[in-house]
Amino acid sequence: MISLGILDKNWARGLNEKEAEVKFNQILNSQNSATPTPKYVENEKQKKLFQEEINQVKRLHGNEFDLQIKELYHATKAPRNLICSRGLDQRLSTVGLFGRGIYFADDVRKCEQYLYNVKGSAIYKCSVILGDIKEYPDGKADPQLKQEPEKENGDYYDSVKGNMDGFNEYVIYDNRRCLINYRIVLEGTEDEDSDKEDEIAKAEKKEEFMETWKRHMNHLVDSCKHDDEEDAKVEQEIRNIEKIRLEIRMRREMKTGKPLTKLSYNLLREERKKWKSCISKAENKSVLKMKTDREHEIAEEEKKKEVMETWKRHMNYLVDSCKHDDEEDAEVEQEICKIQKIRLEVRMRREMKTGKPLTKLSYDLLREERKEWKSCISKAENKSIIPERR
């Protein structure tokens, strides 16, 4: 998207549709030549989504289908940072004559009806995939629409066209079907570039973080596949722990503004080995032998009650032990608390499945185990966290 120029408030007064469009394009061309290096350039992500949508429509209707990609106009007071990072969004629009969609006009003068005397009001010139259009008679509307209208054969139209006040209106219900090419504002509604640039940077950083997060999750799912049943349980447990670790990193990134580390698969595998070793040590120290035959009958009758009582004691201890005055250490304590909850939950499931009693861990053993977790977390942090970007 290219951010260009400022329009005089009365730029379209006295002009017909043809004259208004010619003048608008002249302004764009003159501003483009006067500004060879615009502040905002194409949004590659939106461009990619637009091309993917073109391919999707062709798959649905065939390669010979007329996509009817038109250059149309859209006016909005939505913040520029949102438009730049995410494109137009029907979820942010108000319900219009054709429901909650993204509205366009082929006459640029129509946009004046939607401009507001607030900072950032702008006209956007967009490429729009109209495809198979449902045309309503002049003066007719359907404000109940939430998506493209359905045809009699069960298929759906791609867009809607109506005319309520002498101007054609086009409506789509998927923002991937439009690509912003130009942005132009009315005189007196220009926004402050410096503030908006910061907001845009934050929005882009959050999107980058979410993509990184998805890659981590995909890797964890793939790495959890294992043929051996017992090892598969351990892998699943490690996967749950890693999810908590990544969730903690996500919250820290959102709080401090530091970028989430793009961990390599080698680092993740190395970290998983440390978790597995720590789990093995904890298992050897915590699990007691099965009860004797003499106690077996009583144990069977009271097993569930004993499990729940032991579980409650563990939980009470974990809650109490998580209180800490230092903020950074408190985060680590909170993290350890969550990890131990997973460990105890796994032990409970194993006990219920195998008949082995859940160990009544002493506080000394729990504290010792917490030290091991903390040491493992510290090593993982040192290897996994990259310094803050400049």
From TrEMBL:
One term of GO molecular function: NAD+ poly-ADP-ribosyltransferase activity
Protein name listed in UniProt: PARP catalytic domain-containing protein
Organism: Acanthosepion pharaonis
Transmembrane segments: none
Annotated Gene3D superfamilies: 3.90.228.10
PROSITE patterns, per database record: PARP_CATALYTIC
GO cellular component assignments: nucleus
Chain ranges of the PARP catalytic domain: 1-195
InterPro entries associated with the record: ARTD-AVP, Poly(ADP-ribose)pol_cat_dom
